[in-house]
Design brief:
The protein is an alpha/beta fold. The protein folds into three domains: about 190 residues, 3-Layer(aba) Sandwich (Rossmann fold), CATH 3.40.50.300; about 110 residues, 2-Layer Sandwich (Hypothetical Protein Yjia, Chain: A,domain 2), CATH 3.30.1220; about 120 residues, Oxidoreductase, molybdopterin-binding domain (Sulfite Oxidase, Chain A, domain 2, Alpha-Beta Complex), CATH 3.90.420. The protein contains 13 helices and 24 strands. Strands 1, 2, 3, 4, 5, 6, 7 and 8 form an eight-stranded parallel beta sheet that branches. A hairpin with a 2-residue loop joins strand 12 and strand 13. Helix 5 packs across helix 7. The radius of gyration is 23 Å and the shape is globular. The relative contact order is 0.09.
Length: about 450
Amino acid sequence: MAVPVQIVSGFLGAGKTTAIRAQLNARRGERVAVIVNDFGEAAIDESALEDSEPFRITNIPGGCVCCTAPEGFVDALGAVLEERPDRLLIEPTGLARPQDLIDTIRRCAHRDGLELSPVVVLVDPAQLRRLTETAEAESLDLLREQAQGADVLIANRSDLAQPDDLERFRDFAAALWPAPLAVHETHHGHIPEHLLRWPEGEGLRSRLDPQPSTGDAPDHDHPDSTHGFRARSLQWSPEAVFGRDRLLTALEELAEGRGGTAIARLKGIFRTLEGVSRIEIAGGALHEEPTSYRRDSRVDVIVADADAALDRIATALAGAVLDPSEITLDANRIEVVLPEGSVHGIDREALAALPDGIPDVSLHFPKRAGSAARVGALLDRLGVQGAGRAVVVAGDGFAAEPVALSVLREGVLVHTLDAEPLPAKQGGPFRLLIPESASADPVSCANVKGVAKIVVRREP
């Protein structure tokens, strides 16, 4: 039987440890395991939890479980599963994004023994006000990314918040799309038990076909929702993967009104082989950006037409879903897709022939082994210059968040160990490593095993 896994995330100082302690006190008699990720070596959070006497505490110090310490996290999952707990609680560092943890759990070797419960993200309303008033853009952006990944969004320390702080939080929560399954205000980390379980019709599903719901658009003053318009929502399970090129082609045709379909508004979240994207169509223009949402793929669409138009849209989107056979990429070479669409296959011999190769990566990355090529040399060989971003995709379909080309250039691709292809157990045949010094912020693709594809995009 799979072990329920609850991620309790939130920005630094939001009260995650207090919330976990409250859960442990409420679950006395259960065998509860806790994985804590402290950034420092002092293990303060672990010490704070010891008095609660959970079944097991595992601390992963010195890094972020979603990027620089993924092996430690996966190893901890395996060790916890051997003890067969009733439940697992995970507290990532306040600088982590829950979506990276979700991606890691979904692709790790222990995924069949784990069942993700709703992701909880805590926000301190007073802290939200301070970050907004002081215009701390990077911290505020991270807090928004964390909230985008929330299934349950919690305003913690509401007893200490001013009325204006709570109103700001409510506005912040109301602006999220898709909305969390629940928004709750509490103090001392107390979260009602029913919020920690999937509501009926939500949660992990094995289906790939969309679930529709159709009706007249609400009759109010919103310009995209006036009387006479028709609306439909579609959802796909998180296992459904869209072909990005196929999806964008379909959506661009819809945005231009080809086929007689006039879209008044479209908002969608799509998991593709190049990451999870939020795509909107408004005024005939299509906009795409990465998103932290991970619950499923979904779209809300409003048309100034009959249901037949909505049916055409549903058919076009369904046609962009990849067959499982299309998701597995060739493990013996890396495809590099350039902005104009050209695809270049790079095998181990080609990587080894690049200039300025590294005979032994252990000199640059302790605890790693093998020979590597510099990503910068690969991009130079392909004529990639200037600013832009790239998405790194593994052979199992995992896609990291977009990374700046300037950061990716500092990375290396490990390709050989003892004159043989890098073995899968070492992250091969190709493994990407990016040094911490390459970026001031954590990078989700700092350590990607089984690299099969690099998609280069120019800045919009």
